[in-house]
Design a protein that fits this description.
Length: 343
């Protein structure tokens, strides 16, 4: 079968031929109908030395949806021919964290060598992928695979980040979204659906700011410390919630200037910025959190929002043979929304 792999450190991914896998006990063979490229893939490729536990060559892709083609011994609770999304952050499944669906925070995964698809385990940018357990499959019904696959990260991650701040997203509150990319454009929609808060979008691209306005942002401005006064004015003096989908030092520094007392700063982007936290470096009671991915419950809820037609996922589609073009556009920052590969 064809797969997109990182074959050697220091090189770009490539499309290769590898054997089709066979599911073992408890495993499911999924025929991939769509897979996603993510900035996390670029980060891994460019910083593979920081992941010595990853074995190369490695099939990339932690966003995947597909059709169940075959199951291994002991699997009885998935439907052959059924369409499912892959819940990527795999945990041990048995600890108190995992049994509540928060597998992305499993304390045992690293020690046991349990890694997400495409981030240590063979990923979804292939014609087939092995899913380790039926609990990691979420039914998507008749959702378009191209529109469904970004939900497994680009939808799930902002939903999880926003969910922690729901109590603060009250009438009169402001939420600032920094970065209107694959995740940020969905965050704007989720915020407008789940809260009455004013949403202010920030980006360095006028094109992406226009997208933010079209998706319901109440204001959209250039993201720059030089523009701080205008941003604060648009936010009503400051924000109760700031979500940074870039994570670079300039965006974190800007986000820190927008906080009100008892507000939330949530850093989602994998940039190399650092937030300096102490009693005197941010308003009293403000919290800073760097969450990871989302829970299984969150993914079910995001899928339901999509089934109701309430999420407009912007995608750019590539064939598996042309998958590297998608990677190059992602690397260059020119993808319109989310890059999706269709085998």
């Amino acid at each position: 079968m064809k797969a997109v792999q990182l074959v050697e450190a220091g090189q770009d991914p490539r499309v290769v031929e590898i054997p089709k896998p066979t599911p073992g006990p408890g495993e499911i063979l999924l025929k991939v109908t769509a897979a996603g490229w993510c900035h996390s893939d670029v980060f891994v490729v460019e910083n593979i030395a920081a992941f010595p536990h990853f074995t190369l060559p490695m099939t990339l892709g932690h966003e995947g949806v597909g059709i169940v083609e075959e199951v291994g011994p002991g699997v009885s609770d998935v439907e052959i021919g059924g369409a499912y999304a892959v819940y990527g952050p795999w945990g041990c499944g048995h600890c108190p964290v995992c049994v509540t669906g928060r597998e992305q925070y499993c304390p045992n995964a690293a020690a046991r060598g349990i890694m997400p698809p495409g981030l240590g385990s063979p990923g979804c940018l292939a014609e087939y992928v092995i899913v380790d357990n039926a609990r990691h499959l979420v039914p998507i019904g008749d959702l378009d695979p191209v529109k469904a696959v970004p939900l497994t990260d680009a939808g799930l991650t902002p939903y999880h980040a926003i969910k922690r701040s729901w109590p603060k997203l009250t009438p009169g509150a402001t939420a600032v979204v920094i970065g209107v990319g694959g995740l940020g454009h969905l965050a704007i929609q989720i915020l407008k659906m789940v809260s009455p808060a004013r949403v202010v979008a920030l980006d360095v691209s006028e094109e992406k700011l226009a997208l933010a306005r079209s998706l319901g942002a109440d204001a959209a401005l250039i993201s720059s410390m030089d523009n701080l006064d205008a941003i604060k004015e648009a936010a009503g003096g400051g924000a109760e919630v700031v979500i940074d989908f870039v994570g670079a030092q300039p965006t974190i520094d800007l986000a820190s200037k927008l906080l009100k007392p008892a507000s939330d700063l949530t850093i989602v982007g994998v940039g190399s910025g650092v937030a300096h936290v102490s009693l005197l470096t941010q308003p009293y009671g403000a919290s800073v959190l760097a969450p990871y991915w989302g829970t299984r419950e969150d993914l079910y809820e995001v899928v339901e929002l999509a089934k109701e037609g309430r999420l407009d996922v912007h995608t750019e589609v590539f064939s598996l043979d042309d998958a590297i073009s998608g990677y190059e556009k992602l690397h260059a920052g020119t993808v319109d929304g989310r890059a999706v590969v269709v085998p």
